[in-house]
């Protein structure tokens, strides 16, 4: 569909607990990759919601009192671990209510382009989305990922720059919308330069997301979602 640059909006989706849930498959993949790369069994993990993979990897290594191999080595092992568990992810994981319908609706809107902003690495993000068929609605080339920068707010201008180069429209705070499920997503948008819609379907109560521009219970009300995206 041709892109109308006037009134252009860039929507950036968080993935985990906003669009999908891995329901334990992610933990299993992480444990396998961690043990493969470090030689240590995964005994504990830090709080991971809203963090990037490089940050999580460093914090996990610290909890185990080890000096780990480089993140790039771990990222490759993690990608392979997810690829090996695609069938398991499909059967155990799930898309969250309304997620695919919302993506489909937005994908058909001429003035909106959508991608992802996630702490996942690019490879893992693609695998997660492909397993559930959600990649078809997203331009993953203009997204921003944990292996782009370990500081999550820095991912917002990375995605904006990529989208500007791809579409020829300027994207800034006024026409960039981050959709996520956690206070960390709200903070990422505020510090990074985007508006933010919080979705309280991933386990975080709506009261903890009150600093977002808009808080939705879930993604099933597509009218409310599109209205929030277009709000200036």
From TrEMBL:
<dbReference type="InterPro" id="IPR041492">
    <property type="entry name" value="HAD_2"/>
</dbReference>
<protein>
    <submittedName>
        <fullName>Phosphoglycolate phosphatase-like HAD superfamily hydrolase</fullName>
    </submittedName>
</protein>
<dbReference type="GO" id="GO:0008967">
    <property type="term" value="F:phosphoglycolate phosphatase activity"/>
</dbReference>
<keyword id="KW-0378">Hydrolase</keyword>
<dbReference type="InterPro" id="IPR023214">
    <property type="entry name" value="HAD_sf"/>
</dbReference>
<dbReference type="Pfam" id="PF13419">
    <property type="entry name" value="HAD_2"/>
</dbReference>
<dbReference type="GO" id="GO:0005829">
    <property type="term" value="C:cytosol"/>
</dbReference>
<dbReference type="InterPro" id="IPR023198">
    <property type="entry name" value="PGP-like_dom2"/>
</dbReference>
<dbReference type="GO" id="GO:0006281">
    <property type="term" value="P:DNA repair"/>
</dbReference>
<dbReference type="InterPro" id="IPR050155">
    <property type="entry name" value="HAD-like_hydrolase_sf"/>
</dbReference>
<dbReference type="InterPro" id="IPR036412">
    <property type="entry name" value="HAD-like_sf"/>
</dbReference>
